[in-house]
Amino acid sequence: MKTKKLFCAFAVVATAFAMASCQSELVEEMIVDLNINVTATTTPEFEATIEDNCGNKVSTRTAVSSSPNSNGNYTLSWQAGDEISITDGYTSAIYATDNAGSNATFTRKSGNISCNASSFKAFYPSSLNPQNLELPLVQEYIPGNVKNFPMYAETCNKTLSFKNLCGIFRLCLKNETGSTVKVKNVSVLADGRGLAGSFSIDNTGAAVVCGNNGVTLLCACPVELSACNGTDFNVILPKGDYCSLKLKITTEDGKVINMKSNSTISIRRSGITKVCVSLKPITFDGGLEDITFCESDVDFSER
After folding, report:
1. Which of 36, 141, 156, 243 makes a 20 to 30 Å CA pair with 193?
2. pTM of the model
3. 236 and 139 in contact (C-beta within 8 Å)?
4. Which range in 51-55, 111-115, 186-190 is most confidently predicted, on average pLDDT?
5. How far apart are CA 89 and CA 91, in angstroms?
6. What is each CA distance from 37 to 44, 99, 165, in whole angstroms?
């Protein structure tokens, strides 16, 4: 089979974010207050709010905001239909919300947990639980955002403070080829490091993935790249310093772009690492090209 040719090369530029915060760490934690009535006939309800590092309540979202808030942090907020799983150590239940924004109330959808439990653990999305800690091999492309950004919380006092388990690798692609380029999927692989699959949670609240699986961001509808503005492709990755990060970009017409970093790429828990790549009108034969990834890290709020 002949190797297909793609007429493009890559120039990498860095985009920096000037950010400020009321504390040195730009972290906002999602707070879920467990308003539990211990009577047997009442279904426990979970009230979800968020506090920033200054102690102020702010709107939070299960998708990352498009720009930083007044404290310099990217924020998140609940959306109608969001679900979390909660366990009391013995049984688990799924809770859902019908409203959005701050102070969203989660009510039981399925399963049962004890109102008198001494501790609770909670996970988002609801597919996560102590028996199923898996980061998906395939993620869904969301324009300018992510879907189902994983988080975890544990409490002994009926207040859940969620922490993000991963970070975001934000690949910004710009089309300077002079022809139409539509991206079908973006695959990321790290030599000797797992990016998806079974994971444990370390003492910093970060996911530690077993194995060496890569991850693919799948575009349900191919995304056409702009010649004027970069298009962001956000991939959820576990934290780590990746010495050799490989990218495979597949276009709608089946052409393949392969790239490999020749410098370390750092992904932080609860942070965004942004890399900008411009596609140029030079013949590219599908081989593996060394690229120096210039990066800028951006913090966003806890969930």
Report:
1. 141
2. 0.77
3. yes
4. 186-190
5. 6
6. 6, 21, 30
